């Protein structure tokens, strides 16, 4: 039974890009259109001589923006039940809104290790901007670029240490 790591977060933040990079696959569809990811895609990755199972909880996100938070919450709730650790992905360029704080509160209440991956953090300024995301209340904050493979090792080290 391999430890299970779940990737959660809003549409378009780069969850599937991260999933594909870790699993060295192209199984999860990457795109700019919300709703492009199919429901819960599973893969595996190896880190530090151990294997992990990984789930991309993209979900079928409805076109109606009002419904998006509901679906993200449902996906996160399932992930909390199943996973041993959660990676919440946010886009460094996105303004935080109250649903983000609600989601974090719910994740932290689950009592499982939660890691914040501040994605698209390319370049010095972006890495600094990632610091702003500390206000979400997650202690483990990792600026990453899923697309360019930056910061991923630090994130995976922390995840592996926690589970
Ligand atoms: P998801 O909806 O959260 O699964 O997001 P996707 O993985 O489909 O990515 C959404 C968009 O963000 C795509 O156009 C990706 O190419 C882009 N993207 C993903 N990761 C990065 C990154 O690290 N840097 C930049 N600049 N773009 C990224
Ligand atoms: Mg996706």
From TrEMBL:
Transmembrane segments: none annotated. Residues 3-163 form the EngA-type G domain. Keywords: GTP-binding, Hydrolase, Nucleotide-binding, Repeat, Ribosome biogenesis. Coiled coil: none annotated. GO terms for molecular function: GTP binding; hydrolase activity; ribosome binding. GTP 1 binds at residues 9-16, 56-60, 119-122. One of its GO terms (biological process) is ribosome biogenesis. Signal peptide: none annotated. Belongs to the TRAFAC class TrmE-Era-EngA-EngB-Septin-like GTPase superfamily. EngA (Der) GTPase family. Associates with the 50S ribosomal subunit. GTPase that plays an essential role in the late steps of ribosome biogenesis. This is GTPase Der. The gene is der.
């Amino acid at each position: 039974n391999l430890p299970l790591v779940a990737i959660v977060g809003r549409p378009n933040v780069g969850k599937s890009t991260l999933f594909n990079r870790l699993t060295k696959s192209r199984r999860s569809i990457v795109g700019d259109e919300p709703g492009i990811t199919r429901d819960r895609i599973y893969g595996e990755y190896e880190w530090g001589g151990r294997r992990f199972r990984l789930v991309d909880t993209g979900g079928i996100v409805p076109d109606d923006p009002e419904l998006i938070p509901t679906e993200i919450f449902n996906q996160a709730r399932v992930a909390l039940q199943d996973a041993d650790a959660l990676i919440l992905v946010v886009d460094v360029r996105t303004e935080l809104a109250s649903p983000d704080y609600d989601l974090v509160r719910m994740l932290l209440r689950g009592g499982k290790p939660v890691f914040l991956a501040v994605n698209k953090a390319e370049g010095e300024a972006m890495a600094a901007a990632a610091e702003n995301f500390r206000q979400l209340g997650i202690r483990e904050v990792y600026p990453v670029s899923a697309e360019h493979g930056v910061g991923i090792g630090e994130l995976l080290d922390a995840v592996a240490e926690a589970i």
